[in-house]
Structures are given as structure tokens and as C-alpha cells.
Amino acid sequence: MNIVEVKNLKRVYKSKKGIMRRKTIVTEALKGINFDIRKGEIFGLLGPNGAGKTTTIKILTTLLLPSDGEAKVLGYNVDGEEQKIRKQINFIFGGERSLYWRLSAKDNLSYFGDLHKLKRNIKEKRIDELLKLVGLYDRKEEKVETFSKGMKQRLQIARGLMNDPDILFLDEPTIGLDPVAAQNLRNIILKLKEDGKTILLTTHYMQEADDLCDRIAFINNGKIIKIGSPEEIKSNLDDIKILTTNLIEVDENQKNQLANIYQQAKLMKKDRVLHVSIETKHYFSVLKSLQEIFKENQFININTRQKTLEDAYIQILQGDFNG
Ligand SMILES: Nc1ncnc2c1ncn2[C@@H]1O[C@H](COP(=O)(O)OP(=O)(O)O)[C@@H](O)[C@H]1O
Ligand SMILES: [Mg+2]
Questions:
Q1: Nearest to 175 by CA among 193, 211, 202, 138
Q2: Quick one: CATH architecture of 241-306?
Q3: Cys-Cys with 172: which of 25, 94, 237, 270 at CB 3.0–4.6 Å?
């Protein structure tokens, strides 16, 4: 079942510019996007700044109306059935300050529980469950102002779960967190999926998207340019592997020979070391020609790696910018 359905969705912003604010600037933030999210899925929306990710989330969470096209959440139209949607969803925007820093973790959640009109016993039970889920149960009486950034963000997640939503929208949930705090947050997101929640998230961290998402949409300049599972997206890349090697005492002749055979090779010189990176399906033949050009004692190391989602992102986006 599709829990989110987006059809030919468009959004324009009109803003005034100039000293007299006479000029009207029209920004087409979404130029007709299409995608579905299935129940229980973690769906990632990835793309550069200004691509239209936050606009998409704002429309799906009924904070903003579409200019054209259609968006349905849980079968309800975002334009006209806002109230029904709002009861069953929740959202967290990265870097937002919706928590009350002078209140304790528990009192914060209690406040949001009251906003959602939860019955007292249900509210208390849920507060305890959620504080345990996000690893803050032992700190529940402490004021939020004493919390680290990671703890605050985990409390935000608990806040976003107070109404037991079917879908949680997370806009850049790990932005600005240190690696350990970000990992903690990712583990919580995976637990939510196990509990049957559907999640839409945006992120700039490709490894994070690869680790978390069942499916991903790349969005650029208001258009979706690729959609699929991380595996599908990676397997569609031009070449599947990258061979890298570091060489010393490379002379110009050797460098030219290499550049002639592998025109795509990236050569970067750092101090006395030449770093070579070649995209290849044919690892052994590349290795063989490297051996023909260079002497054994010139190789510092040789590595291969599979292409990552980050490689896919860069390749697909460059293709989109170029034509
Ligand atoms: N309130 C607004 N008024 C005018 N333009 C806006 C507004 N919000 C966003 N935009 C523009 O819409 C485009 C998409 O923005 P946004 O959805 O925030 O992108 P992302 O979240 O992917 O960085 C950008 O060009 C941005 O400048
Ligand atoms: Mg954004």
C-alpha cells in the first residue's frame, strides 16, 4: 500500500525584491515531481541545497499548499483534508528549537502530549516508553538546556512520536551532530522502522542514506532525476569499481603513458606522491598495464573499492547539470 502519493506536484514561491520591493521574483521550487512511499519504508530525499526537499516535506506535512498537482498522505489530500493528516503524522526539522530549554525532558514531552490531547495514563506511559527508546530515561528530570546537541535531537525524535504517528518526516535529522551522536540517531530511526513506522528523511550524508533507506529519490532543481533502492542506483553506474594507487618518483614519460591509456584517470600530485584513481570494470587488465608502466618499487599501495552512493550521487547530478 502506498502511504504517500505525489503526482505532478508543483510549487512556486513569489517574493518581492529591490529597494521599493517592486520586482516580483518567481521561484519554481518544485517543477512537477512524482513519487510514492510504501508503508513501513524508510524513504530518502537527497539533493543539493535549494533542490526542493524542504518544500516537499512542508507540503506533505500540510504546512504549505501545492501550487499544482496532487499529494496524498494516508489516502487524504493535503489540500482539503489537513486535519485528518495532521493527527496521524509528525515532523522534525533539523536545527529547529521547538523544545523548551528550561523544562525537563519529561515535562517537554508532557507538554506536547497535552497539545495532542492525550489521556493522562496514555501520556505517562508513552513518555516513559519514548524516553527509553531514545536513551534519555535516566536523564528525564534534567533540564533540556543541560543536554548535548545529540541528546536534544533524540528528545526531538521522542517529541515527534508523542502522537504515535504512522509517518514521521525528518528533515536533515543528523545535521551538525558528531559521528557517535549521528550513529545513535540512525539506530533509533532503524528501531522505528522495526516498529512499523514509515519514515521520510532528507540528508546530505550519502552513507547515511545508504545505511538507512529502502528507497531513495535524487532531486535537483525541483525535479526528481533518479529513484530506486541504493543497490539499484549503485548498480546502474557507468563503471562499478574504482582502482586507486599511490606512486613515487613518477617521471613525465610515465605520467604521459598513463594518461594516454586511461584518459578518465584522475591524477593528483601531493608532495612526491602521485595519486591515481581509475574507474574500471576490468581490474586485472588495468593492474597489468600499470605494471608495464611503473616499476615495482614505485608502488606505495594499490586498492580497489566498490562505488558508493556518493559516487552515484555525484555522477547522476553532474549528468543532470551538464544536460
Ligand atoms: N519562503 C520562500 N520564499 C521564496 N523562495 C523560497 C522559499 N522557500 C524556499 N524557497 C526557494 O525554493 C527552492 C527550494 O528550496 P527548499 O525546498 O528549501 O530546498 P532544499 O530543502 O532542498 O534545500 C530554493 O530555490 C529556495 O531558495
Ligand atoms: Mg532544506
A1: 202
A2: 2-Layer Sandwich (3.30)
A3: 94
Phi first, then psi: what are they for 273, rounded to 5°? Answer: -105, 135
CA of 62 to the centre of ligand 2 (A): 16
Pocket of ligand 1 (CB under 6 A): 13, 15, 27, 29, 47, 49-55
CATH class of 2-235: alpha beta
Q: Residue 245 has what pLDDT? A: 95
Question: What's the 162 CA to ligand 2 centre distance in angstroms?
Answer: 24
Q: How many CA atoms lie within 13 A of 314 on its CB side?
A: 6
Nearest ligand for residue 46 CA: 1
* pLDDT, mean over the chain: 93
Domain coordinates in residue numbering, the chain? 2-235, 241-306
Confidence check: pLDDT of 257 > 90: yes
Which triple of cell numbers denotes residue 221? 532543481
148 CA distance to ligand 1 centroid (A)?
Answer: 29
Atom of ligand 1 nearest to the CA of 49: 23
